[in-house]
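Hey team,

Filing this mostly as a record. A colleague (T.K.) asked me to run one chain through the structure pipeline before their review meeting, and I want the input and output archived in the tracker in case anyone asks later how it was produced. No errors, nothing strange. Just documentation.

Input sequence:
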Amino acid sequence: MNQSERKSSLEKPWASSQESVIQALEIDVEEGLSSEAVQERQKQFGKNQLQTEKEKSILEIAINQFKSLIILLLAVSAVISFVFGDFVEGMAIVVVILINALIGFFTELQAVRSMEALRELTKVTAKVRREGEIKEVNAKELVPGDILLLNGGDIITADARLIQASKLRINEASLTGESLPVDKQLEPLPEDTPLAERKNMAFKGTAVARGSGEGVVVDTGMDTELGNISSLVQEAEEEVTPLEKRLDALGRKLIYVTLGLAAIVAISGWAFGRDLRLMVETAIALAVASIPEGLPIVATIALARGMQRMAEKKALINKLSSVETLGATSVIITDKTGTLTENQMTVTDIVLEEGHVKVEGEGLDMKGDLNWRENSSDKKMTESLETLIKAGVLCNDATLTFKDDEINQTIGEPMEIALKVLGRKADLEEDSLRDEMPEVRKIAFEQGTKMMATIHEQDSHEYFFAVKGSPEAVFGSATKVASPDGDQTFDDDLQEKWSQTSKSLADRGLRVIGIAMKTSDEKESNPYQDLSLLGLVGLMDPPREEVRSAVKRCKDAGIRVIMATGDHGETAKEIAYAVNLVDNEDAPYLLGRDLKEIDTLSDKKRQQYLETQIFARVDPEQKLDLIKLHQDEKEIVAMTGDGVNDAPALKKADIGVAMGKRGTQVAKEAADMVLEDDFFGTIVAAVEQGRAIFNNIRKFVLYLLSCNISEIMVVTLASVINMPLPILPLQILFLNLVTDVFPALALGMGEGDPRLMEEDPRDSEEPIMTRHHWISMGVYGALITAAVLIGMSLALNALGFGRERATTISFLILAMAQLWHVFDMRENGTSVFNNAVTRNKFVWFAVALSLLILLVAIYIPFIANILSLTDPGLRGWLVVLGGSFAPMIISQILKEMRLVV
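Output structure:
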């Protein structure tokens, strides 16, 4: 049989009988494959490993640092400077480019992934039957047809059709999102059975929680369900972040402005009969003035600072621009298990014939009151309630270990652990119970009976039978119901009543188990006959404590939180209500299969899907559809998750957020951000930090461009009116590299306005510079330009200074006016003297440092000669101070009038 024939015959192995699968793969179950058959199939199917994406090389990382329009514009300016012999200017621009590239290179290199997670999953061994013997082989050597042996604790290393199962339960949460281990069976299933319900299959990447079994390997490597997810991870397109889009858009605008102004000045000056070389030099000066050389550096450092802050808060960022992306996020799509919930079962409800008990405390917390719903002060620990809890503790395989009166370690199924924690809350300790009632017999849980029983000796002549299982199974074995007035006959009416009670608990998203007991003088008596029903226990994987407040903060910030889980709809709905994701207990939910053909939905149906906040039974491809649904509406989508099944969506989303502790390595590798502490509230901190970063970037872009437009206006107007250039090309570059950069960098280091999380997310199409920002930039630039030109006129005409001294004065007015301009970057509505800028210690340090650099440039002869500067003298300094402060004073008045931002 060739490979294609074998594949087609096993297209849906869960729908085939064991015999059909064995026959299709041409194997003898008792003997397994021979060495020759293994080698032949390895040639056909290849190694049992997942393909890996090519990691970025150091060269690729380095090249990426130069993929920016602003960097390109700077490079063109440098080339022009070299062509016209201005080597100092050219070298200065080259230095700017290299500094920016080095910062970006080392930051990104630090974030490059150090290993391939999907490949790591295969670095384990597997037990197989080959040539009639049990062998332990490298999981990579598995081939279709191998007989795979499974035991508790094993990592399953290939997809297999089960042919034997003894109390086999497999934890598939990382693959399907199912929060509970899945009981496995052997019977064939319908062809359209969803992944989460294929109970006769064992999947690569999942783990055996309990029991043992055997399976025939049907798929290996990229043909497994995990391999399909790996393909989706590689195929999912990575989105360009909003910040990258905006900076590119700004860069394009600057190119047009630069080329347009340079051409106009050069051509008009030449047309007026001025020297062509002088006009070309002036055009270069304008080009230099129009480019914010400090912008790439400041943006990179500001983002790196945000990255550092997030790391301090246990959030690791893989890419610099991702720091800002969460700030623009309008939708967060989150998994449930382990992300919104503790991934630990907790008893929340107990129903007895005499009433309903609510149990407080979550997870492994051993403190929690048991409160009767009925208003009865005398109902505390009744005999029926004590017996039920006692039976739950005794009929149990879980183990708890303690340290300093706290649970240190747990072994066993979450449901059984929860029952033992319930015993602690009721002061019924297992050790004491087992001393009083030693176990003499156990009947393990079986899929056929759906029950488990333990038998305990009460005295020398009587035995206590403790039974737990599915409500339906326990109801079918019970003949009585325990009540305060003695046992009642479990007739049809009572059965109907209890069935409805069980359904109502399940409808709330709880897992429900029935608990029963009987006493007998025969320990070998059938444990599942003549039982007395004690009651029902409802369990829930509880929401994590911090999630509710985190979801509320998201709502306050205008961010929609959507749950997409592989779990049942009622369970998802209950958790969604518990964490405040929805306001109504009866909020609607949709199933993953409803997401099919989203591209052909009617407008009404699409709107329904967009408004729905709970999606259950969602598989990996459907998560991609859900993300696309919202991205098509121009939403910025963040996806949180921790499982293998989340990886494709984490990559497709505008930003993927993986859980560090509970998350699989696959999810971490696919994500843009990893939360080390799994603290959902860190997502909100990331949103706040992202908004602050964007706000800071907007501030320093406005600041830098205001400064640069003033330089453009100064040079342009001086050229038009045939006035000596108030500032020379090298002086412009000096300002842009030194005095502009430090205040701008300080703005980028700001903590941000506390009111940011009270605003709705920005429009995904909103540029860094809006119309109001461009207008404000023009006003600020005009004020500084007027101050510079008036100051130079005073120096030349009123004071009679020479050209070099007058140029120095205009240079200093421009430089210091730009320094004071940083205080114009406060938010509207804040105090002139107490705001985010004045509270920013980095701003004061930057202003002081820049003033020191200016003094050095004036009074250190070597530097002064290069920049053509001289001492302005006392009268000159008075002109400088007056001229530089005037624009800031006028700007603050305009800001109070809300005429500028």
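Quick notes for T.K.: DSSP finds 32 helices and 27 strands in the chain. Residues 212 and 468 are 21 Å apart (CA to CA).
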